[in-house]
Amino acid sequence: MKKYMGIWIDFEKAYVASFEKSKEIITRIDSEVEGRVRLAGGSRSVTPYGPQDVASERKVEERRKHHLRKYYQRVIRAIDDADKILIFGPGEAKIQFEKEIIKSKKLKAKIAAVERADKMTEPQIAAKVRDFFDLHRSI
User: Fold this and answer.
1) Cα dihedral sign for 134, 136, 137, 138?
2) Residue 80, domain extent
3) Side by side, which strands form the sheet with 13-20?
4) Distance between CA atoms of 139 and 130, rounded to whole angstroms?
5) In sequence order, which residues have a C-beta less than 8 Å from that of residue 58 and are 6 or more positions away?
6) Domain count, the chain
7) 66 in a domain, yes or no?
8) Which residue blocks in the chain are alpha helix, DSSP H?
9) How many CB atoms lie within 10 A of CB 89?
10) Nearest in space to 56 (alpha carbons), one of 69, 37, 33
């Protein structure tokens, strides 16, 4: 029996819906990624209208990217044994997550689709995955 998985993902959390035989499991994975923060301070150039120091902004952005990569890797470990994968969610997180999966040769071919979806409850997530893979008859 194949194992079908659907991932609803945004930058805060991911829900992994897993369907195998008659079992249906939904798991929540929190990102622990800091939200965008506004930096206080900074320094001006000596010359009028000169550039400002933005090194600290780069550090914050790099730290955010690093946290996102770790988050995506945790989700990838949760779907490692999937046969078919549906990725959906609001915003850019689903696209970034797809790019992270594509780096894995094992999971790259298992992506069935990447779709846009608004915020959903756990039952709505499960229903979407069931409908997409047409699992009403086989489970």
Assistant:
1) positive
2) 3-132
3) 23-30, 13-20, 3-9, 84-89, 111-116
4) 9
5) none
6) 1
7) yes
8) 55-78, 93-102, 105-108, 122-132
9) 25
10) 37
Q: Is residue 114 classed exposed, middle or buried when 0-12, 13-18 and 19+ CB atoms within 10 A define those classes?
A: middle
138 within domain boundaries: no
pLDDT band at residue 11 using 50, 70 and 90 as cut-offs = very high
Here the tokens at position 99 are 């790019």
User: Residue 34 sits in a domain of what CATH number?
Assistant: 3.30.420.60
Residue 139 lies in a domain: no
Contact between 27 and 19 under an 8 Å Cβ cutoff? The reply is no
Mean pLDDT of the chain: 87
CB 129 within 8 A of CB 5: yes
Q: Sort strands 111-116 and 84-89 into parallel, antiparallel or unpaired.
A: parallel
Question: What is the predicted pLDDT for the residue at 104?
Answer: 84
pLDDT digits (tens, 9 = 90+) for 78-134: 999 999 999 999 999 999 999 999 998 889 999 999 999 999 999 999 999 999 999
- E strand or H helix at 81: none
Would 24 be classed as within a structural domain? yes
